[in-house]
């Protein structure tokens, strides 16, 4: 008995749940969990179906494809661990959290490599027996640096890139190579405090809550589909750097939770939003 | 086009989702939302299906019943507002919250009457044009008092009774007349601080969080299926009465949210637990 | 034995706590709670001291004023209930929450009157025996309308005005009559979604959390000192109007909590921020 | 300019804040933060005063001691990092979180050693260049095992012992050697689910929230003074082992936060409660 997850995204139509689940039943695939969502304003149908059984009959997918509307995006994913490459700059907390959670088994992902534009986080990474690549940006323009980064990254054929406080803006070219495959942690409760130094902005505004946002990276900086957000309370006792320190806990928790949802195939992208089933 | 909700609870079997959704589709009933859950340890299947269409063909239910296992509990509920009777003692906050939320439309329920073993909350109730019945327990034993309460309550043919800080224990006879139809708010995070004076107990123990629990009432005091729980932080500055005061906000929020889930037919009872779909 | 609260705000200097608490001690005033805060970047000192004793000796305040720096703002407030006037438009939830909490004693404030630019909320208000004034804005320009509002409001000599979903922007003239005395609830987690229709903006952006902000009103719309913020999680299931509905709970809770802090003299304004002691 | 923290705990009396802060002022010690609390039911006074200045004049402490009641516990602690020894069994998450937080600087403590009754966590510990001691309990009675543990532990002269999912009950003898110096993480929201297998108990009861509790260890198992508690929501989808997995995040966060408060000298013990200033 194998387990696989069927992910269906198409234009909504009558009877889609019945059609899909009936085909599963006919092929003796047992449904463990089924979640669906119809986005009424856009008329889009999303369904995530965890299945158990024998998947060796190719007629299963053929039957599905025959029954579903032509524009359907349909994936049947097995439970192989996803592979990620993590991009970092200098801060350890998000990287460390992912490394520790993969170590203790609470995050089910393979960290293929860590790539940094500084060399600071080599020791931490290598302690977990993971290769670290230092690709300095010094003396390079943005395109040159990204080119070198991609040479390193692409060799790993990662399912996702994770920007774990990677503090450089990516070009459209770079992003275009990993569409909806790059997850970033932004150190504010987007769309508040877009741009540089969000904790300083939060301090200056006197907010009583700070947050963090994990999102897919698109060409529009800080505007990609949001996967997960969370917040913590602050007060007048917090300096801007206290806020940054307190925010690190939120950042790493939000990033880990978003990553977990993505690699377990719970996240659909729908325009500039996510649907999480 | 009408909207109804199909609630199915039966022993799990292969193909149940496909069978139910196919019958809906054959009868041109469109599925707006569908949620299902299988409780593996007990092998129970639960599904909640929001439908839209014409329900006048009796063959729909006949087809469903023919397709489902014999032991199935199957209900097709329309969107008529549920009717509740609220039981109170002296404290206003839970009653007031329900009255205000029905007034401003954020809680979709009809408060048929309020019944109190004191007369304190008459004015508040009547300001919302709802009948108030004072049924004193003085000079009566428990059975006699409950008998008088039931005479008042039963005339309203309520879907649910809500104990909004009703501070008397109900007998098995009373509870037996409203099985899984009585919702209580307990002023602690059950199962902590079962029994009397939970805030004093919480204070004595020096806890850093207090909570409230909404549950269905069964014969086992404080042991019925839990519908909703929530908590708030407290600290050394809180006296036992500060905790009680702070707890009121949690109590009323938890009770209102539990009630909302129940009257919108999201709550299944499964043994001494709830499944909320 | 009387209880009063001493509120001190001045430029920081060595020995301020010792000086103030020593003068209290010399005048046999017992300190029940003392909270202080120094804002290092601005060099401002804030202290809130709850005192118990006999306050009839005028030398107490004279001694304090002699010991403190010249620029000090020093207030000794007694425990008289503060008086508020509530401004509303059409939505009931924030008004209803304040009315109910003053009724059940969980908010210690006197609602002197409710003033609305529609007549919708008259019945709810009058059920709590509070005068309701309908001051329509129709056919009036902003100044004329505000002038009529102020004629009604000013007769009550309120300590604070509370904008409980009052949906009109106030002019600088109006605000200038109640400096740091007007509390507004904004239906977003400021500074996200400044301006009109924040729930629609939140929906369009696909955020996973929505919030509310209570702040003092200043001339800069949505930019006044923030008193309290809170949030709730949302997801792809929420339409813009679902978010608005869910947000109402946060709005009313945030406004009530902010109001409670303000009327119990916990809130200092420091530039465009608050210090809450 | 040095920084030290003055911790005062004594019977309440008039003028204590004035006396202490005046002596600080006379000795030219500037108060950065001051927090006090009087527990009225027990008449105990607690104050935590962060000071900055020159501490070389012995008259400062002499003056304090002369001014304070005889029973006072008074400590002046410098900002030296506290030293801890961590006790573990098999689970990595709490240990890993402390190691990572000390590594990235978000927890300011020195981990002197890790001692385990299994050898599982050696590799993780040694990757952070910290000594690991394996002290098996096999073939030993409780006293013999604790004796061997203490021989290892005592050589480090730790300020605190941290039980990071150390799954053995400590004897009164062991606890007596580190009074209010042993911090445990209990995997439930105490006092709910005291005893063994709390997640299974929580699952069986059908709770909607699970939690964790960090507390000082005393002779009464699960009854020591609570330092910190936190919770997360669960629902019918969680098996007992899902709850245990989800609970790990809460456990490690609660333990780290409690530890941070303790080693920064914010925590007073008052009977079987804590006062956190």
UniProtKB/TrEMBL annotation, chains A, B, C, D:
Q: Which pathway, metabolic or otherwise, does it act in?
A: Purine metabolism; IMP biosynthesis via de novo pathway; formate from 10-formyl-5,6,7,8-tetrahydrofolate: step 1/1
Q: Which sequence ranges are marked TM in the entry? A: none
E.C. number(s) listed in UniProt: 3.5.1.10
Give the UniProt record's GO annotations in the biological process aspect: 'de novo' IMP biosynthetic process; one-carbon metabolic process
What family does the Swiss-Prot or TrEMBL record give for this protein?
A: Belongs to the PurU family.
Coiled coil region boundaries:
none
Q: Name one GO molecular function term.
A: formyltetrahydrofolate deformylase activity
Q: Does the keyword NAD apply?
A: no
What's the superkingdom here?
A: Bacteria
Mind telling me which Pfam families this protein's record contains?
Answer: ACT, Formyl_trans_N
- Under which name does UniProt file this protein? Formyltetrahydrofolate deformylase
Q: Upper taxonomic classification of the species? A: Bacteria, Pseudomonadati, Pseudomonadota, Gammaproteobacteria, Vibrionales
